[in-house]
Amino acid sequence: MAHILAIRFSALGDVAMTVPVLYAVAKQYPQDEFTILTTENMGCLFEHLPRNVHFRGVDLNRYKGMVGLNTLFYELYKEGYDAVADLHDVIRTMFIRMAFRLKDKPVANIDKSRMAKRRLVQKDKKDKRQLKTSVQRYADVFAELGYPVDIAFDSIYGDRRPDLPDEVVKLTGSHEGTAWVGVAPFARHKGKIYPPELMAQVLELLDREGNVKVFLFGFGRTEETWCRAQEQERKNVTSLVGKLGLQKELMLMSHLDVMLSMDSANMHMAFLTHTPVVSVWGATHPYAGFAGLQTEGSEIIQADMACRPCSIYGNKPCYKENYECMYSIKPATVAEAVMRTCNNKNAAHHE
User: Fold this and answer.
1) Which listed CATH number (3.40.1570.10, 3.90.420.10, 3.10.560.10, 3.40.50.2000) goes with 167-350?
2) Is the pTM of this model over 0.85?
3) CATH 3.40.50.2000: which residues of the chain?
4) Which residues face 244 on adjacent strands?
5) Which of 26, 101, 116, 335 could form a disulfide with 50 if both were Cys (CB 3.0 to 4.6 A apart)?
6) Mean pLDDT per 10-residue run, the chain (351 residues)?
């Protein structure tokens, strides 16, 4: 029996994409143990995985600089891991894996294909082709360590959705006779955010449906202020920002009929609960490999433009200065995709 240490510190969406791989590798190699090392707040993503998957949270603020990383390494080394799967490939993880290598432990790291991604987003003569997904890149790391794996994953909750806690039900009310739509209107960078004034129109169109309840997901004061304003203006819109923790948000996502999201962490969290996602893409593009595991019934909305994609992470300013890639997507197109997904899911449920 071997014990493999997998490392991925951030970001939330990238850590979420490790879950299907850890699930699959643990199922296919039940005689071995797998520990995921990530930040302490990510624990709920891994609570429902097979028993041979373990969560190892870490507060990176306690391990600053090379001295801190060396301290972390020796703590990990004493825990007796037999090999290291570096799923992040940043300075911190490079240090840790190299230290394990010096102790004669097998290590493998993710190939991020940085040059191919640069060619994908260069301004002229873009090399537009589908790159390997992050999920497959994670799987490749385990294969290099001797654990080839077929990704077979549906939901962190298995084939049964969790019952919603009373705290959540007080916010949502009954699901009976209504479609539940989650909306995560924000992302970390502007290039990945559908313009708030257009998203407000989407919410208005969904609110007019009458039999739809919309739940807004977000984080931070700015997002909370915007979502609260939308809640106050519309009868069937409820803001969840600041009201539920990550664990309860995941539980609620498993009960949604559809999640409307940007290219953001909420897209990946919804996929972990087997909820179909309508995702809106602007500066970024699924070709870069960050679309994750698309649940059946999911849709990707994006404009076909020569300048796209212009950024891998959405952090570069629009060189046209007008974010046409987002503004060219009509609110009606988004709302129709959401309702189409709801209707298709309900039709399949009643077959």
Assistant:
1) 3.40.50.2000
2) yes
3) 3-144, 167-350
4) none
5) 26
6) 97 97 98 98 96 98 96 98 98 98 98 98 96 98 98 93 96 95 97 98 96 96 97 97 96 98 97 97 98 93 97 96 97 98 71 49
